[in-house]
């Protein structure tokens, strides 16, 4: 009987942690073809997309990025959220605060900011496509005054970096995950990065 107590305790503890995977979004032929051209990487299941109990306390429709956890949550009604693994800004470029989605784009062109070009002269503007660092989708963020923050939530051509602090401040997601988020999040949705 004493051996059953630890098993019972583990079972009760896990019962409070409710999560399950969610189906992939439907993809266009172009999405499927271009995503197949992005090199695939080993993927830690901890950073997969799951439907979870909402740990954020934010209002439904809010995007919450927990930078220390390397997780992004899209808050749903009924105290649920969709959780995605992300890459966040490295220590020198990370940021926190509130924003709003002011624009959404599919396979967006990339125009690196002047500050990034000064740091890395080899970067240059690039048309949307599988080699583009913004990946399959981008959500453009504005501050409280409506000004472009130059930060984005976007896909990636480096899926092996999901779960790391490796970006220049943007929030990167696997392409299949950013398509899922893109389909859920309307323009003007609130975003909290903490």
TrEMBL record:
<protein>
    <submittedName>
        <fullName>L,D-transpeptidase</fullName>
    </submittedName>
</protein>
<keyword id="KW-0573">Peptidoglycan synthesis</keyword>
<keyword id="KW-0808">Transferase</keyword>
<dbReference type="InterPro" id="IPR038063">
    <property type="entry name" value="Transpep_catalytic_dom"/>
</dbReference>
<keyword id="KW-0133">Cell shape</keyword>
<comment type="similarity">
    <text>Belongs to the YkuD family.</text>
</comment>
<dbReference type="Pfam" id="PF03734">
    <property type="entry name" value="YkuD"/>
</dbReference>
<dbReference type="GO" id="GO:0005576">
    <property type="term" value="C:extracellular region"/>
</dbReference>
<keyword id="KW-0378">Hydrolase</keyword>
<dbReference type="GO" id="GO:0071972">
    <property type="term" value="F:peptidoglycan L,D-transpeptidase activity"/>
</dbReference>
<dbReference type="GO" id="GO:0018104">
    <property type="term" value="P:peptidoglycan-protein cross-linking"/>
</dbReference>
<dbReference type="GO" id="GO:0071555">
    <property type="term" value="P:cell wall organization"/>
</dbReference>
<dbReference type="InterPro" id="IPR005490">
    <property type="entry name" value="LD_TPept_cat_dom"/>
</dbReference>
<dbReference type="InterPro" id="IPR050979">
    <property type="entry name" value="LD-transpeptidase"/>
</dbReference>
<feature type="domain" description="L,D-TPase catalytic">
    <location>
        <begin position="61"/>
        <end position="194"/>
    </location>
</feature>
<keyword id="KW-0328">Glycosyltransferase</keyword>
<dbReference type="GO" id="GO:0016757">
    <property type="term" value="F:glycosyltransferase activity"/>
</dbReference>
<feature type="active site" description="Nucleophile">
    <location>
        <position position="170"/>
    </location>
</feature>
<feature type="active site" description="Proton donor/acceptor">
    <location>
        <position position="154"/>
    </location>
</feature>
<comment type="pathway">
    <text>Cell wall biogenesis; peptidoglycan biosynthesis.</text>
</comment>
<keyword id="KW-0961">Cell wall biogenesis/degradation</keyword>
<dbReference type="GO" id="GO:0008360">
    <property type="term" value="P:regulation of cell shape"/>
</dbReference>
């Amino acid at each position: 009987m004493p051996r059953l107590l630890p098993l019972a305790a583990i079972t009760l503890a896990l019962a409070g942690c409710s999560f399950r995977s969610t189906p992939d979004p439907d993809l266009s032929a172009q999405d499927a073809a271009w995503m197949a051209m992005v090199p695939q990487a080993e993927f830690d299941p901890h950073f997969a997309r799951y439907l979870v109990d909402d740990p954020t306390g934010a209002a439904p429709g809010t995007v919450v990025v927990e930078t220390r956890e390397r997780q992004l949550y899209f808050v749903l009604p009924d105290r649920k959220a969709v959780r995605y693994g992300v890459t966040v800004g490295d220590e020198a470029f990370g940021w926190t605060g509130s924003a709003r989605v002011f624009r959404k784009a599919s396979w967006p062109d990339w125009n690196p900011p002047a500050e990034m070009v000064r740091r890395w002269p080899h970067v240059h503007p690039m048309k949307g496509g599988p080699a583009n660092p913004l990946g399959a989708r981008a959500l453009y963020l504005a501050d409280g005054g409506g000004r472009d923050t130059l930060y984005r939530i976007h896909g990636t051509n480096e899926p092996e970096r999901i779960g790391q602090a490796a970006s220049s401040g943007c929030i990167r997601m696997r392409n299949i995950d950013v398509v899922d988020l893109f389909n859920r999040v309307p323009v003007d949705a609130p975003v909290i990065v903490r």
